[in-house]
Design a protein that fits this description.
Elements (H helix, E strand, L loop, with lengths): L2 E6 L16 H17 L9 E7 L42 E5 L19 H7 L4 E7 L1 H14 L3 E10 L3 H13 L3 E2 L1
Parallel strand pairs: 1-2, 1-4, 2-3, 4-5, 5-6
Length: 191
């Protein structure tokens, strides 16, 4: 079995101080960074990943996804605008271990990392399959939005999918609980 870690949207705008901040985002960034440090060091107890990738919200003009009066369900404040500090990975997270970054949502809403592509246009599922990946672990921000969508699509794409809840931050307790229930019902393992 070949396992990948998918780090979802650990960007400044989704962490404390950002335009769409999720409580615990900066902690999650630091905790993922610690896991990646152990992974790159190797040796006994190193996480069992063959490859690590990340996703990024990458908005140029996503239409109604941005709103001056967001409903926080289908429309949101301006966030992760290309070229801004808000779109960058959080400073607690060193992106060096990422074999690839998948950009999503340039001109439309995009929640799932599987909607993202590399700079050259390769989709996440295609990229993973080309490397023989059949198992994925998903972590990042936010449990009840982009982590949820990425994990559900991972399972739909045929990958054995797990969500690492200790390495995720959710927007709200109620929506996070509902997302975890939905993911488990779709065959995603909740760890």
């Amino acid at each position: 079995m070949v396992r990948a870690l998918i780090v979802v949207d650990v960007q400044n705008d989704f962490c404390e101080g950002g335009s769409l901040a999720v409580a615990g985002g900066a902690r999650v960034a630091a905790d993922i960074n610690e896991l990646l440090r152990h992974w790159t060091a190797g040796g006994d107890g190193a996480p069992p990943y063959d490859v690590v990738v990340a996703t990024k919200d990458h908005h140029v003009d996503p239409g109604e996804h941005w709103s001056a009066k967001p409903d926080h369900a289908t429309s949101w404040p301006v966030h992760c605008k290309v070229g801004t500090e808000g779109a960058a990975f959080h400073h607690n997270l060193d992106p060096q271990p990422f074999a690839e970054v998948f950009f999503k949502g340039a001109h439309a809403a995009a929640y799932s990392g599987f909607e993202g592509t590399t700079a050259s246009g390769t989709g996440l599922a295609q990229w993973l399959r080309a490397r023989g990946v059949d198992e994925v672990d998903v972590c990042g921000i936010a449990t009840d939005h982009c982590v949820r969508a990425t994990a559900l699509d991972g399972a739909r794409e045929g990958f054995d999918t797990r969500v690492l809840t200790a390495l995720c931050a959710g927007v709200a307790e109620e929506t996070t609980s509902a997302a975890l229930t939905e993911m488990a019902g779709a065959g995603v393992e909740i760890v």
